[in-house]
Design goal:
This protein is of the alpha/beta class. Helices cover about 45% and strands about 15% of the residues. β2, α3 and β3 form a beta-alpha-beta unit. The protein binds flavin-adenine dinucleotide (FAD).
């Protein structure tokens, strides 16, 4: 099913999973269990990340295939960094053969130890990759968006210009970087509309499950931390169980509020943790919480 069609019909719920390291899940039985559990929430699609540099590439394609076999719609992430056009073409061919209809076109990040020439062999920008995907098959193409700005962005106005460029190159929906402040998302959505950008923007939600881990993610992504969340991170810095519980409440509150305010869709960065994600949905107010007990983990 094409995601752009789904978005015309309804607010979507979706999940991101990542290919586990081979030594953690040799035969992908663990990720199959995760996907089967997540299916209980009836997601509209599941996205599968793609490591920059692509050493998890075959596993990412296998997981997209697995999602299809489980009756789910996959969204395959595809990154540009480090690849020549022929290499990207080969992956697009493999995705086509697998039956993938949706691709999230991303630039990826330059690995610290690599030089510019090795990185940008095929494409310099996600928009260029989107244009390439558009002419490589009949795909629904998504792009990344940054409500609080990308690390390299110059201004909020320019960010929206670049989103429009992605749309001109074939992107028909966006998924945002994680954010914890719904007011920042609302401002961003308002800026998009004021600039005439009508493409659906799906909100990316990362549940806070451990204080230390989230502090690191905040540092890397540069996203704002509302006082209420900051207080929780301090209070439960050394109490993982309480942080997990409070973090699930926080994510459920964020999701309910966005949904009520008409967000195009909710995309949960699951970190492959199905039990917590299903519990968050049970606590949130979006009608996807009726999860049978035997699927809660
Ligand atoms: P771009 O859109 O190319 O933007 C990169 C930078 O260039 C931005 O600062 C932008 O403002 C600027 N820019 C864009 N166009 C122009 C232009 N014409 N002129 C000048 N500047 C311009 N990474 C992975 O490695 N694997 C994944 O699976 C993955 N999944 C992701 C999923 C989501 C939903 C998001 C939000 C990010 C994901 N990332 C992933 C991270 C992403 O690859 C990085 O954030 C990367 O730094 C930027 O990718 P992009 O696609 O937004 O790039």
């Amino acid at each position: 099913m094409r995601i752009d069609r789904l978005l015309e019909e309804k607010q979507t719920l979706s999940f991101e999973v990542f290919p586990p390291k081979p030594e953690m899940d040799v035969d992908l039985a663990g990720i199959r269990r995760t996907l089967s559990n997540l299916k209980a929430a009836n997601p509209d699609f599941v996205s599968v990340t793609y490591g920059a540099g692509g050493n998890n590439r075959p596993r990412a394609i296998d997981i997209a295939d697995m999602a299809i076999s489980l009756g789910m719609t996959p969204l395959s992430h595809l990154t540009a960094v480090g690849y020549a056009k022929e290499e990207v073409s080969a992956v697009i061919g493999a995705l086509t053969d697998t039956g993938v209809e949706n691709i999230l076109a991303l630039r990826g990040d330059k690995p610290l130890d690599s030089d510019e020439r090795d990185c940008w062999r095929g494409f310099r920008r996600a928009s260029e990759l989107a244009g390439f995907v558009r002419y490589s098959g009949d795909f629904c193409i998504g792009g990344a968006a940054y409500p609080e700005g990308h690390q390299e962005s110059v201004s909020p106005e320019e960010d929206i210009e670049f989103m429009m460029e992605k749309v001109r190159m074939g992107v028909s929906f966006f998924i945002t970087q994680l954010f914890f402040d719904n007011a920042a998302f609302a401002e961003f959505a308002g800026r998009c509309l004021a600039s005439g950008l009508r493409t659906p923007v799906i909100a990316g939600i990362m549940p806070v499950l451990r204080a230390g881990q989230i502090r690191r993610i905040i540092e890397i992504s540069g996203c704002g931390v509302p006082d209420a969340l900051d207080a929780l991170l301090d209070r439960y810095a050394d109490d993982d169980d309480s942080m997990r519980d409070a973090g699930m409440d926080y994510a459920a509150g964020q999701i309910s509020d966005l949904w009520k305010n008409g967000v195009a869709g909710i995309h949960i960065y699951t970190m492959n943790k199905s039990a917590e994600v299903l519990e968050i949905l049970r606590r949130s107010d979006i009608g996807r919480g009726a999860v049978p007990d035997d699927h809660k983990g």
